[in-house]
Amino acid sequence: MDTSEFDNRIATVNEQISSLKADMEDLCGNYLRGAATYFSDFAERHVKEAVTLAPDKASELGKPGVKRVKKHLEKLRESMTDLVEQHLNQQRCWSHRYKDSAVDMSSGYPRRSNLGYPALHNGERAIASKVGNLLAEHDLLAGVSSYWKRDYSRGLEYQHGVGSSDEMKTAMEQYRSLDEELTKRRRDLMKFQTEKSQAQAADLWESA
User: Fold this and answer.
1) Residue 14 lies in a domain
2) What's the predicted TM-score (pTM) here?
3) Over 70: is that where the pLDDT of 89 sits?
4) Whether 46 contacts 135, CB under 8 Å
5) Looking at the 3D structure of the chain, how many domains does it have?
6) Which of 29, 94, 190, 206 has the fewest CB atoms within 10 Å around its CB?
7) What mean pLDDT is predicted for residues 15-44?
8) End-to-end CA distance of the chain
9) Residue 97, domain extent
């Protein structure tokens, strides 16, 4: 049978999907670059706050001890790009990187609830926990203990929303908008592929 009509529809949708994925990858890059800067500032803000809210401990540490804290903090900040790469720049965090055939069309994500935005948020919490572990190592949790709780896999986990920068928010808002469109196009692709297969099966029945 002539499948050109189905093939043309499928080709058009595949082109639309490819274009959307390229735009979403650009936004993903914007988000990740923003995240590296944001979490570097997050670390400095929380470590400084922990020192200033525990003056007795700061006095006990003295200038040499505080210098050690600041050196540890600087090392953490320098590693932030690598931490973002490790925890956030992963296929599980970004729906446009999923194989179209693996996506649950009712949600737009693979058939595992810990993927997509939940995976991204978990990655962000894993980065934030590095700050808590630094504070614990230097015994600086006294003034900020309500912010952190013990997590057996991560050490100290931040108790509040980790937040995001304006750059991250803008990138994510645009990403989510394209994500909705991508889900629609993926549904169209599945629909046209199914219609083609059914038409071929019907033609086979009639011609046999």
Assistant:
1) no
2) 0.85
3) yes
4) yes
5) 1
6) 206
7) 97
8) 13
9) 22-202
